[in-house]
Design goal:
The protein is built from 19 helices and 8 strands. By secondary structure, the protein is mainly alpha-helical.
């Protein structure tokens, strides 16, 4: 166990396992949400059951590899947001087959691997100003809390004001409110495993009041159709069709590359800071291994047919429970693999509660995300907002993440504003050249995404 550095990181085996279970609980929704998005009611041609297996295996294998190889508390699974792009933009929008869409994911992942092997990704991470790194962590915390508030039903969408107060007459919203109060009390009393206990307590109360259904069975076995998406990615067809280069597909590869590249960067910085793993310069020791596994995960996701697999911000829930080593994601990974056989039981906690509008709410795990968001907000005190040169970019980084529902967009706004302010004030020497390059790439990515959406709308 010396390899995992328990004493050095002030943790132990029990705490790491509890943290891994907690992380799994907050991530388990992806087992059911990812197949639902990718299959889209059968319109994409992607088999639902096979994506369930692919999602579990992909998340399980890559989380275990992350834990054993990098010894960091980062769990992985199919990325939300990217899966929606695959379904609604690439397949239903551009008209590509799901095999071609997965080919795009594989190509994008290979590009990120090249960036890691050439050390450009690590150099860029090291070039980010410390205050912006803090802002990324705060932004992710606010983003997580916003997701939790939506999943709890505390916040609803509104056509006029964008968001509004939720309906507290709904049983799932009341259950989430109970879960939040319970978790907050446990955290306030500094109870070990507070977030996991909050999830368990909320589940039990939900079952008692019949808000959360009892499982009809415990075990389910894979069928012959369970692996039909594996290794069907069409790399050639992704970029070359009808005797010519598919320009729209190239644009999507670039857009997904930027999203995958910077989403992971933000997650590693934010969760790494919360775990106390960053050094004085805000860098993560052993970063290359973390980034290489994450990049490889994108390729594996495309090959398995479950969209890009990426490092999850929900890892922060395990870190908040004391997770500091690779045992945490290894535990999470094992639970994902076991989920292949215990899907009916996992559905009780992570499957969500359907609303009258057909939208799913997650009252059991939503309170955990809100509390984790609060815990990640603590580093905001390290940002000097009186210094406008860094305060404004930090502010934009923080607010754009939840406002756009995208980590990389927040990073992009922060990079671009920071670079422009420094350039216009004539402080060229304070800018790392890669910050300028990254800012330009972000600007190009924003324009490319807008053009792609405009093309699809026609």
């Amino acid at each position: 166990m010396d390899y995992f550095k328990f004493s050095q990181r002030n943790t132990n085996l029990r705490r790491e396992i509890v943290a891994g279970i907690t992380t799994f609980m907050t991530m388990a929704y992806i087992i059911f949400v990812n197949p639902a998005i990718l299959s889209s009611g059968g319109t994409t041609g992607i088999p639902f059951e096979s994506v369930v297996i692919a999602t579990c295996l992909g998340a399980g294998i890559m989380s275990i590899l992350m834990g054993l190889i990098s010894n960091t508390p980062f769990a992985l699974a199919s990325g939300m947001g990217i899966n929606a792009v695959v379904t609604f933009t690439i397949i239903l929008g551009l008209g590509l087959s799901w095999q071609q869409a997965m080919g795009i994911i594989v190509i994008e992942g290979l590009l990120v691997i090249i960036m890691v092997l050439t050390k450009l990704r690590m150099i860029l991470m090291n070039a980010i100003p410390m205050a912006l790194k803090y802002a990324i962590g705060v932004g992710i915390g606010l983003f997580i809390a916003f997701i939790g508030a939506q999943e709890a039903g505390f916040v609803l969408t509104d056509p006029v004001t964008a968001v509004k107060l939720g309906d507290f007459t709904k049983s799932y919203t009341l259950l989430a409110a109970f879960g939040l109060i319970l978790t907050v009390i446990l955290v306030a009393y500094k109870v070990r495993g507070a977030i996991l206990l909050g999830i368990i307590g909320t589940t039990i109360v939900g079952m008692i009041f019949k808000i959360i259904p009892l499982p009809t069975k415990i075990i389910s076995m894979p069928t012959s159709e369970s692996f039909s998406t594996f290794f069907k990615a069409d790399l050639v067809g992704a970029v070359w069709s009808n005797g010519m280069i598919n320009t729209a597909a190239i644009v999507m590869i670039f857009a997904l590359f930027m999203t995958d590249f910077f989403d992971t960067m933000g997650t590693v910085i934010g969760v790494g800071e919360e775990a106390g793993l960053l050094d004085a310069k805000g860098n993560l020791p052993g970063l290359k291994r973390v980034l290489l596994i994450d990049s490889s995960a994108a390729v594996v996701g495309g090959l398995f047919g479950c969209s890009s697999i990426t490092t999850y911000i929900e890892s922060a829930s395990g870190v908040s429970e004391g997770g500091r080593t690779g045992i945490m994601p290894t535990t999470t990974g094992v639970l994902f693999i076991l989920s292949i056989f215990f899907a009916p039981l996992i559905a009780v906690v992570g499957g969500g509660v359907p609303t009258a509008e057909g939208v799913y709410k997650y009252p059991v795990t939503a309170p955990a995300l809100i509390v984790v968001g609060f815990l990640m907000m603590g580093i905001i005190s390290k940002i000097d907002f009186k210094d406008f040169e860094i305060g404004i970019p930090a502010f934009l980084t923080i607010i754009i993440m939840p406002f756009t529902y995208n980590i990389s967009y927040g990073i992009g706004f922060g990079f671009i504003s920071y670079t422009l302010i420094k350039l216009f004030r004539g402080k060229f020497k304070q800018l790392h050249p890669l910050m300028i390059v990254a800012s330009v790439l972000f600007a190009v990515a924003f324009i490319s995404i807008a053009l792609a959406e405009k093309f699809i709308s026609k």
